[in-house]
Design goal:
mainly alpha
């Protein structure tokens, strides 16, 4: 894909100087490409664009009805891009400097209850290579709270089954080591045996990097996020749970259930790979809401007398 040379310089800076993950760079490329394509018919580019024109672009995005979070993310990419151009002396002023950000409502994640989690995981039956893989994937996501991209990027050398530890690479390629329990370990061990993963290994590898992937597709390729997402969503449908299922729900559930059972907030922050404790604190509210719900339904005097 042909891209503006200034965008290419910016993306290279993000990769080399800031150590941003590949998926992040891809997102920035897509967002900035859309931004410059919108400017082009008016004879405007990244060097000549004004504050009002950037405002018009944001307004046009909002009018399409796209998610607020998507517009906010795109504006954040544009903001960083123009800041980079100023720092490199390409522009004298930053047209986004005084622009207000797009407000994204802070939603509280809705985790599964522990009973719902058991229901979801119980539907993962079957003994084909694919079914064993899917069961191991869901158990792994719930046990570790890993992001779906981290699970897809997982390589065989990252797993230590004997000590039940996994090395994950989060946002910005930050490395952390996360433990997992006996059940997840047993499912992973079963999957990595001749009964599971070996049945998905192709006669010839399409890419060398696929050879080391933990989770393979039925064609012997490294699983991507779309496929993993579909597996979790399908499990939700099969379980009969009346709610939308996603890998993030399992991540939220892992964190919330740990806090409900007394885990320290800092430990959960480290396990999930959150950069700041404030991100993890959202799960504290979820746990408090759950506590109130249980109390009001269980305590004989919680509801009062009518």
């Amino acid at each position: 894909m042909n891209t503006d040379p200034f965008v290419e310089s910016f993306l290279q800076w993000l990769t080399v100087e800031r150590g941003r993950a590949v998926n992040t760079v891809i997102s920035y490329r897509r967002d900035l490409g859309q931004y410059l394509s919108w400017l082009k018919p008016n004879g405007v580019d990244a060097i000549s664009v004004t504050e009002k024109q950037v405002e018009s672009f944001v307004r046009a995005q909002q009018e399409t009805g796209e998610a607020v979070a998507s517009t906010a993310r795109r504006l954040a990419a544009i903001r960083m891009f123009h800041k980079f151009l100023v720092s490199e002396g390409v522009r004298a002023t930053n047209p986004v400097e005084r622009l207000e950000g797009v407000h994204v409502p802070s939603g509280v994640p809705k985790p599964l209850t522990q009973e719902e989690t058991e229901t979801l995981l119980a539907v993962m039956t079957g003994e084909s290579g694919v079914e064993i893989r899917d069961r191991a994937l869901l158990e792994f996501l719930y046990a570790t709270g890993a992001r779906i991209s981290e699970a897809c990027d997982l390589s065989l050398d990252d797993l230590d089954l004997s000590n039940r530890l996994v090395r994950l690479f989060g946002k910005g390629s930050k490395e952390r080591v996360v433990p997992f329990g006996r059940i997840a370990a047993a499912q992973l061990e079963n999957y990595l045996s001749v009964a599971g993963r070996e049945r998905l290994v192709p006669d010839n590898w399409t890419k060398g990097s696929d050879r080391d992937a933990v989770f393979l597709t039925n064609r012997g390729r490294r699983m991507n996020r779309q496929k993993a997402w579909a597996i979790v969503k399908d499990a939700g449908v099969r379980s009969g749970l009346q709610r939308e299922m996603s890998p993030h729900v399992l991540r939220h559930s892992c964190a919330t259930h740990m806090l409900e059972h007394g885990a320290d907030l800092r430990i959960v922050q480290e396990m999930l790979g959150h950069a700041t404790i404030s991100t993890t604190q959202i799960y504290t509210k979820v746990s408090q809401d759950r506590l109130l719900e249980v109390y009001r339904s269980a305590h004989p005097r919680a509801r009062g007398s009518s």
